[in-house]
Design a protein that fits this description.
Layout lengths: L13 H8 L2 H12 L6 E10 L8 E9 L4 E7 L7 H16 L12 E7 L10 E4 L15 E7 L9 H10 L7 H14 L2 H29 L2
Parallel strand pairs: 3-4, 4-6
Antiparallel strand pairs: 1-2, 2-3, 5-6
Length: 230
């Protein structure tokens, strides 16, 4: 199988996106610009965190999973494929596992933390040409009545043309789209990306990961063929 050359990768590559967002200042600034909040400090649980509740449950791998100093949980995902995606149920599943993961056994649901699931999409996930789609639980009969469960799902669309968003986030989405660097934040992202790509050990890590993923896919395919034979 042919892999994309490491030197040809851009920020839309999931692996490099994770590496860039591991820079605390960049990740913190992204969150502040997008959510319009002030963040003193963030804590990384781990990059591409795996959440698995039970032995037989489906686990999920989260790209960038952080907690702010004041207790907000924020999951940031780079999404480049819209094939076979059900974003509503996917975010519902992510939310359920994140909530269960944040509570210790026997703790009250009242201790659930405010959370955000953020998808950075290189396509329009809902086909309304919006730059950003924000979802919260609201009452159908009273449109101004929110459930206040403190959960928010955000989809950024790098191809969108409708709606107003923070200027730095707009510049970042254009950069994801392959356009030139504009603004201080995107310049920081670009510099960090170049620094990451200059490190030989990260290139080796990328190729090792790609080979491991391909082996896992091949094993799953072979297992499926074997099962179908019986």
């Amino acid at each position: 199988m042919k892999f994309k050359k490491f030197e040809d990768l851009t920020i839309e590559n999931n692996f490099l996106f994770q590496k860039v967002m591991q820079d605390e200042e960049i990740c913190k600034e992204f969150i502040e610009n997008l959510l319009g909040i002030s963040v003193k400090k963030i804590h990384y649980s781990e990059s591409e965190k795996t959440i698995e509740i039970k032995n037989k449950s489906k686990s999920i791998r989260l790209d960038v999973y952080v907690e702010t100093e004041d207790g907000r949980i924020i999951d940031i995902e780079m999404q480049t494929s819209e094939v076979n995606q059900n974003f509503g149920k996917r975010t519902r599943y992510y939310q359920a596992l994140i909530d269960l993961n944040t509570l210790n056994k026997g703790e009250s649901y009242k201790k659930l933390k405010e959370s955000y699931i953020i998808f950075v999409c290189t396509f329009d996930p809902f086909k309304f040409d919006r730059k950003i789609y924000t979802f919260r639980n609201k009452c159908i009969e009273e449109e101004n009545l929110e459930l206040n469960d403190e959960t928010t799902k955000i989809f950024l669309n790098s191809k969108g043309t409708i709606g107003k968003i923070n200027e730095e986030i707009k510049n970042f989405l254009e950069y994801v789209n392959g356009e030139e660097v504009k603004g201080n934040f995107t310049a920081k992202v670009d510099n960090r990306l170049k620094e990451v790509k200059s490190r030989e050990e990260i290139g080796v890590e990328y190729m090792t990961l790609e080979l491991w993923l391909q082996d896992a896919k091949d094993d799953a395919f072979d297992a499926g063929l074997a099962e179908g034979a019986f």
